[in-house]
Amino acid sequence: xxxxxxxxxxxxxxxxxxxxxxxxxxxxxxxxxxxxxxxxxxxxxxxxxxxxxxxxxxxxxxxxxxxxxxxxxxxxxxxxxxxxxxxxxxxxxxxxxxxxxxxxxxxxxxxxxxxxxxxxxxxxxxxxxxxxxxxxxxxxxxxxxxxxxxxxxxxxxxxxxxxxxxxxxxxxxxxxxxxxxxxxxxxxxxxxxxxxxxxxxxxxxxxxxxxxxxxxxxxxxxxxxxxxxxxxxxxxxxxxxxxxxxxxxxxxxxxxxxxxxxxxxxxxxxxxxxxxxxxxxxxxxxxxxxxxxxxxxxxxxxxxxxxxxxxxxxxxxxxxxxxxxxxxxxxxxxxxxxxxxxxxxxxxxxxxxxxxxxxxxxxxxxxxxxxxxxxxxxxxxxxxxxxxxxxxxxxxxxxxxxxxxxxxxxxxxxxxxx
Amino acid sequence: xxxxxxxxxxxxxxxxxxxxxxxxxxxxxxxxxxxxxxxxxxxxxxxxxxxxxxxxxxxxxxxxxxxxxxxxxxxxxxxxxxxxxxxxxxxxxxxxxxxxxxxxxxxxxxxxxxxxxxxxxxxxxxxxxxxxxxxxxxxxxxxxxxxx
Lengths: 418, 148
Known about the structure:
heterodimer, A: alpha/beta, Aspartate Aminotransferase, domain 2
């Protein structure tokens, strides 16, 4: 974060996880008669009351369409929608507000780039580079694009710890590499990729780079100018914001040269049956009435998150992660999948005694919500020759008590299956 | 919610030690089952003589529910005719998916241990994977059953 960030009006609050927990109403409920322990923030984070209130207020007070009407409600909604864009810009340190395109989420942001930039620029013989640890949403759009253009999808392998190493990346880069799409943080393993280095290598080859930031935004610093990435895609709902809203950052020069992704209202300057003139950035890529309440909710989520000392939030999460790693390794028969140095927020694991699906059901009966399955990263599962993992993932509100509850629940698994 | 309703001893036992966990020879039908949500996989082979299943076995990997269900299924249907098998599947399916109180659990014999699955809607597909694979094997020698 830059010091000049205008997001947080007040000075950063000291980080007090118990006070943070008070902000999240969903935490304060029982499931199956036990207090909820939420360890699935990598799937979606819970929402603080301020975000819920912001979304409610849009519908209760400022309910109107944006950008077109002259009446007061529309002026208020438009102003708040555009304020949210500015909050996103400041949060990722983009140079200009016009470089922030609202989308439904990370998936739509990636598809936008594949569809618009990809079809305009890729030719037969070109190569698109992805890594082995990608989420399906950063694989499938590029596969489709390669099928359409005759380009080739090339995969950078990861290590058995779940790392993408500079040398392995460099080996796959060629003079044919036109585009690189890679995760900033792995959703299945928690690995943090050395993206700044990899971007520099790709740029040396003249390739354009997109980062999938879905898992990164709440766990590592994101500064698109410092990273020098060409595109950055993320979702609001993993950053304590609503579902159905996210954003694509793109360098102005690239966005200017790209054809529209979808045609419709708001993305045009003028329409006749002979010719349509497209709107300026970012509206060229925002056809139709957007998720107004979602965007405003995302702005509230950024306000909420940035009200903390973000380094203190990361330090807290990392302390819980270290505690959890030690605690899980101490459970007999547990094997961690994904042990990259510097990993964040995710613990994928297997148990000798039980299949991940059975683990998930049993710990749920103890009130502990974790994820089980392939986490939309089947190539990662294939690498480790497994069908699925159990995955506990952390958010700003998790404590070591939550980890103790998980370990207690895993002992129930062992009692039942042992 | 009582986990013991779901994970009954019979299920834990068959999950750990599946019966008929081999491919029978000879066989003239094969089905492959896959649950893309959790990666559970079953390959089922059987010998159909006339309308009677004279031998059956499977190799699979997955959760205790899916493997135990397939294991108990192979025990229940070996030696049965196709109409008898369909009647069993119909009763089994009703038991794990319907809110109606099944009145003829006795007819299901050991398969009745899966009655608790209905309280766990996310696990119904685990319990029915083996049966869908069986139907695949009987309908089409080459196809693949999925739960989706």
